[in-house]
Each structure stands twice: as C-alpha cells, then as structure tokens.
Amino acid sequence: MRILLIDDDKDIFALVRIAFRSxxxxxxxxxxxxxxxxxxxxxxxxxxxxxxxxPDVDGVHLAHALSDRQPNVPLVFxxxxxxxxxxxxxxxxxxxxxxxxxxxxxELVKRVxxxxxxxx
Length: 120
Known about the structure:
Blueprint: E1 2-6, H1 10-19, E2 26-30, H2 33-42, E3 47-50, H3 59-69, E4 75-79, H4 84-92, E5 97-100, H5 105-119
Parallel strand pairs: 1-2, 1-3, 3-4, 4-5
C-alpha cells in the first residue's frame, strides 16, 4: 500500500511514519501541494493524506485537483484547521475523512485502514 502525505511539517511526516511502521505501507512525503500533485501524477497512491494549510496552495483546492485526475483515490484531510467551514469545504471535495491535529497515531491508522477498506 502506498500513502502520499502532503504536509509541510516534517514532524507530521515523522509521526505518520511512526504510525505506520508496523503496517505494509510505503509512505511518500511531499512538503508542498505542487510537489504532491507531481508525485500523485507520476504514480497514484492508494490513499492521500493532505493538510489544508500548505505553503503554496490551499489543500481544499488541491484535493479537487487530485480528484479530477484520479477520482477513485481516497483522500483524508490531516489538518489543524478545525472549524465547521473547514469541514464543510473538505466534505465538498469528496474527502473520505477529516482528522484534526494533534492526533493519536493509533486512531490515524485505524481510520486510514477503514477508509481503505471502504474504497475496495
């Protein structure tokens, strides 16, 4: 299983890597939305974890772009944005889940696995 994490925080990458260390996961990291889009187009992952607050592009807009390219790849927002408006905007992208930072790594794995199971 390949997961693409699009988040500019290297500490989040480290946490996600720890979360999935005992899972059969190849974790790919992009620190910007444009890098994430490039990696996504090169080799679509099985799932995308995406922050909303990226340095170069809004994560909600990026989610729409990813969905336009490969609508069957599930996307989960992993973000510090926690308002009702943020959640509504994320839901409109077709995102499968919305996980707020800070997060419990066991809960992250559980919810990602649930999304992947639903996608099959």
